[in-house]
Amino acid sequence: MDGTYPLSPRTPVPARPGSVCRQVRDLRHLATAQAVLGAETDFAALLRGGGPRASRASRWCAESSTTPWYGSTPSTFEPLVVGCHTRGMDTPARRTAGLDLDFPQSLAVYDTYEEAQRAVDHLSDKDFPVENLMIVGTDLKRVERVTGRLSWGRVALAGAVTGLWFGVFVGLIFALWVEEGGVLGILLSTALFGALFGVVWALIGYGATRGRRDFSSVTAVVATRYEVLVEHKHREAARAILAATPGLLPDPFAQS
Fold first, then answer.
1. Which domain holds residue 198?
2. Which 3 state secondary structure label does DSSP give 136?
3. What is the rounded CA–CA span in Å between residue 151 and residue 94?
4. What's the number of CA atoms in the CB half-sphere (13 Å) around residue 48?
5. Is 55 a member of any domain?
6. Residue 201 in domain
7. Residue 225 included in any domain
8. Based on C-alpha coordinates, what's the Rg of the chain?
């Protein structure tokens, strides 16, 4: 023994800069030395003896051997990040490929998409690098437009029309492999079966609602405002171009 590691189990191993796993290995060396001298403890046996816990510790060390502990100097603080725990996790600022800017800043906010599109188109006409722009819809809301009242007759008619068109489409596909004289018969038969299937399917679906939804509607998710974002290094140039044309740069203090 060279005296590097104390033999008393009560004496802590001094923390060292570098890897946590290096300290774990130091503890295992200490446990081995204690076993040789006959002073083995339960903790030392766990570190030295292997088993499921030791296997997990070894695997953890192998996966996080490059993960630093706290900074090597007292004035440097680096948070502990365990590699095996963060593997496969998303970062807080996860980005969508092709739809992100490095450091975006707000250029202008518009009430409609057409106004935002007009501003970007004007910047493009002035040879501004529009690849540094992004239109973002904010304050999203779900809008459901009621189009009419539903009844058994309306549901059956809508199902028949939908099934009819589907049957004609299937008949045209089958008609590619039959002789010329049998095309009309295939189209009529598939259209008839399609309409019948559409009626039955629509009535089953409407009956399953049990009268809780006797109306038809169209649903969409729309944005209340549209914000144009620009890369920070091009913000002043973009604002200067928009400000030169009246109506393209809205007043941020205007009442909506």
1. 151-213
2. strand
3. 47
4. 14
5. yes
6. yes
7. no
8. 35
